[in-house]
Design goal:
Number of domains: 2
Pfam families: Cu-oxidase_3, HMA
Keywords: Copper, Metal-binding, Oxidoreductase
Order of helices and strands: EHEEHEEEEEEEEE
Strand order of the largest sheet: 4-1-3-2-5-6
CATH topology of the largest domain: Immunoglobulin-like
Protein name: Heavy-metal-associated domain-containing protein
Strand content: 25-35%
GO molecular function, one term: copper ion binding
Number of strands: 12
Organism: Blastococcus mobilis
Distance between the termini: 48 Å
Length: 202
């Protein structure tokens, strides 16, 4: 295993940038990134100099090789990143409430806050991402032909989006991360313009 310390790797964005470069290095079979230890681990016949060069190409200086380190949080295998940065700790989180039904008219604006909540599922308290304090989020009742604005604030601890399953709307408001929009960063916000041209339940 090749283990390399990258001092400036301090965010999920830096993990993604480094992972994208290193996973393309010939001979990389498994790529594991320990964000807490700021260490990149590679399994396979890749040349250490090629791995270090890929990290450099991502814009990060390599500090040193680390022997015997134990990798954890993010794993990339076959070029597909699997992030495990969503905390499971429920300590101090508010309990999820029941979703509300909101009646909205054409031209209305809804403020939607995303954040972590605690919810009991099958006898276990788990951490979930809630919408205005509930899971699932509120039910919106909107007349056909209306357009509303939904101002989303990300109070969660992960970058995220809101995807509007089945609605026929402008592509830039569809909420598919890295496809139709950049994820909403932690503490950031984004306003969706949502149209309801068709009758139905979505």
């Amino acid at each position: 295993m090749i283990s390399i310390h990258v001092p400036a790797m301090n965010s999920r964005q830096s993990v993604r940038a480094i992972s994208a470069r290193v996973s393309d290095v010939p001979g990389v079979q498994i790529l594991e990134v320990d964000l807490a230890a700021r260490t990149v681990h590679v399994t396979g016949p890749a040349a250490p100099s090629a791995v270090a060069a890929a990290i450099g190409a991502a814009g990060f200086a390599v500090d040193r090789s680390v022997d015997g380190a134990t990798p954890s949080p993010a794993t990339v295998s076959g070029g597909t990143a699997m992030d495990t940065f969503f905390s499971t700790d429920t300590t101090g989180l508010p309990e999820a409430t029941r979703p509300r039904v909101l009646e909205l008219a054409d031209g209305d604006t809804l403020d939607l806050r995303l954040g972590p909540l605690a919810k009991r599922l099958a006898g276990t308290t788990v951490r979930v991402l809630g919408y205005n304090g509930s899971v699932p989020g509120p039910t919106l009742r909107v007349p056909q032909g209306s357009e509303i604005a939904v101002h989303v604030t990300n109070d969660a601890d992960v970058d995220t989006t809101v995807h509007w399953h089945g609605l026929r709307l402008g592509n830039r408001y569809d909420g598919v991360p890295q496809e139709t929009q950049a994820p909403i960063p932690v503490g950031g916000s984004f306003t969706y313009r949502i149209q309801f041209p068709d009758p139905g339940l979505y």
